[in-house]
Design brief:
The chain is mainly alpha-helical. About 85% of the residues lie in helices and about 0% in strands.
């Protein structure tokens, strides 16, 4: 009876670990692909802006949102990274990369708009966005590498776990 219950518990634990591992891989993959897609979009949009000499528009709501993101996102990034390292979650580490990217984007936006406003440099915003692509690709690579690491983590073997449980059970058997 104990062996049946033990096997059932081990099976549930292994299933949970398998599901968790798949979720970690999926989250890392989605994050990496999203960051790479964002980098491609920024390159295309910046190129279009530079070619057409389009000037950035200023919205006070947009400025407020960018300032709030510039303050909050670095704090959120560090908090997520700290928790991800503590619990060993590649998915949360990848999510922290998204928060870092958001912080970079808001700071880049503010710098570009400030240079445009102070000096009339209409090209500063798209140029700053192109510099930002480096950081986005770096964060995307980090998410992709964490995906590879999660995929290589060996699964807990049920047979070995059962051997350990049975060994402990026989040592504790006083009958």
């Amino acid at each position: 009876m104990v062996s049946c219950c033990g096997d059932s518990l081990l099976s549930d634990t292994e299933d949970q670990k398998s599901i968790s591992k798949r979720a970690e891989r999926r989250a890392s993959w989605i994050t990496a692909i999203s960051l790479f897609a964002l980098a491609c979009y920024i390159v295309a949009d910046s190129a279009w802006t530079l070619l057409t000499r389009a000037h950035a528009g200023v919205s006070w709501w947009g400025m407020g949102l960018a300032i709030a993101a510039a303050i909050i996102m670095p704090l959120l990034w560090q908090g997520k990274l700290r928790v991800a390292q503590r619990i060993g979650s590649a998915a949360l580490k990848a999510d922290a990369a998204c928060s870092a990217t958001c912080a970079y984007m808001s700071l880049t936006l503010l710098a570009g708009l400030l240079l445009n406003h102070l000096f009339g440099w209409w090209w500063a915003d798209p140029l700053a966005a192109l510099v930002l692509v480096y950081f986005i690709v770096r964060e995307g690579r980090e998410a992709w590498i964490s995906l590879a690491l999660v995929s290589r983590v060996p699964a807990v073997r049920r047979r070995k776990t059962c051997e350990i449980v049975n060994s402990c059970k026989s040592k504790l058997d006083f009958g």
